[in-house]
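Usage

Read records sequentially. Each one opens with the input sequence:
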Amino acid sequence: MSKNKKCLLVTFDYTQKGKSATSFAAGVLLSECRQHKDYGKKFTAEHLSIDMNKNKALNLSAGEIVNIINGQHKLEEIDGLALGCYVWNTELIEPLITQLKDKGFEGNIILGGYQVHESSCEALYPSGDIYLPSYAEASLPEAFMQDKLICKLILDNKFEFASRHSPYLNGSIELDEYQPMVHWETQRGCYYACSFCAHRDVAGNKVHDFSMETIKKELDLFKEKNVQRINVLDPIFRKGRRSYEILEYAIGIGLEAELVFQVRFEDINERLLALFSKLNTHLEFGLQTAIKSESIVINRRNNIEKISSAISMLQDKRVSFEVSLIYGLPTQTLESFFESVDFLKRRGVSEVKAFPLMLLEGTKLAADKELFGIKEGHIDGSGIPHVIESDSFTKDEWKAMRALAMKLTNLEDSACLS
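and closes with the structure output:
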C-alpha cells in the first residue's frame, strides 16, 4: 500500500482588505485536491500564504521564507511542495528551492502559476521537479501523488470545468457574515488574444463555462452571507444568453452586493444595460488605448465608434463604470497617450485610470519585445519589472506618461528608476 503523501501549497499573495483569508486561486486548487477520490488515502494538502503586503517592507530573503515554511510545516515531513510562481516573486524561486533543500526538504518541488509555461519553464526554473503549465485543478493532485522523481515532469491539466467543485460551497474558502469582498468566476479563459495578456488558456485558447447550477448556488450563498462586494474575475463578461441568465438570477434573488464586472465596450447593448441597471453594478472597461494603430499592434482592435456610443448609453442609464488605459505600449508616444486620455475626458468619462505595461511570461508581446526596442526597469518596491522605454518613447517621455497616470488617480509618483 502506497504512503499517504503529506503535501503543501505555498502561495505569495498581495492580499486586499476585506478578502477571505484564503486567496481565491489557492481556494480553487485546495477545493479540487480535497474533493479528489484519493484525498486522504494517497495524499493530503495544506496551504500556506506568504502575505506580500505584510512582508514587502521586510524584503524577505529566500532563507527567511524557508524559515516561515519550516516553522509551520516541518520540511523533512513534506513529500510534495508546490510553489506559486508569479511575476512578483519569480526571482525568488530558484534561491528558495536551493534553501529548501539545504534545510532538509527531500520531496518533489512542484511549480505552477502564470510564470510557468511549457516552452520556458525548465529554463526559467531549472531546479523544479514537476511543472504545471496552464490551469492546475487536475494536475496539482496528480503532482502531489507522484513518488520522488529522477527525471523532470510536465503535467497537463485535463479537467472538466463544468463539473468543478465550488471552493465557497464546500468550505475551502470560508465566508464571514457581511464578508466585505469575494472573488468569483463564472468561466475560465478569454475569447480574445491581446498580445500583453496572460488570461487566456495558452494551451488550448478555449473558454470553459462553469455549471449554471453551481453559479446559482454560489449566488444564493453570497446573498445568504450578505457579501458586500463580488469581484467577477471573468476576463470579459460578454453579452449573450448565459450572461443574461446569470444577471436575471441575481436580480430574482434580490442580490444586494456590489457586482464588479470586466466588460468590453463592443458588448454593451440595451438588454445588458437594462439588467446591469437593476443590480448594484460597477463596470470596468480595459480600453488600453484609443489610438487605432496601437490597438492593432497589441491585437486589441478597438472600434472607436462603438466605444463612443457605448459610453453615451452608460451615461444615459447612469451605470457606474471606469475605464483603464496602459502606458508604455509598443509604437505609443507621449502625445498619443495624452490623446487616449483626452478621448475619454472629452466624452465625460469621470473615472479614468492608467497602468504601466509589464511583460508577462508566455505572452506574444514578451516574445516580440526586441521588435519594438522595449526596455524594462524597476519602478517601485514591488520587484516587478515594467516597460520604461522603447523605440517610440524615451525614458523621460515615459516618466511624463507616468506623471499623468498618477494625476488621473490622485497618486503621488513614487517611481524610483535607476
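Summary fields computed downstream for this record:
- Confidence is low (pLDDT under 50) at residues 412-418.
- The chain is about 30% helix and 20% strand.
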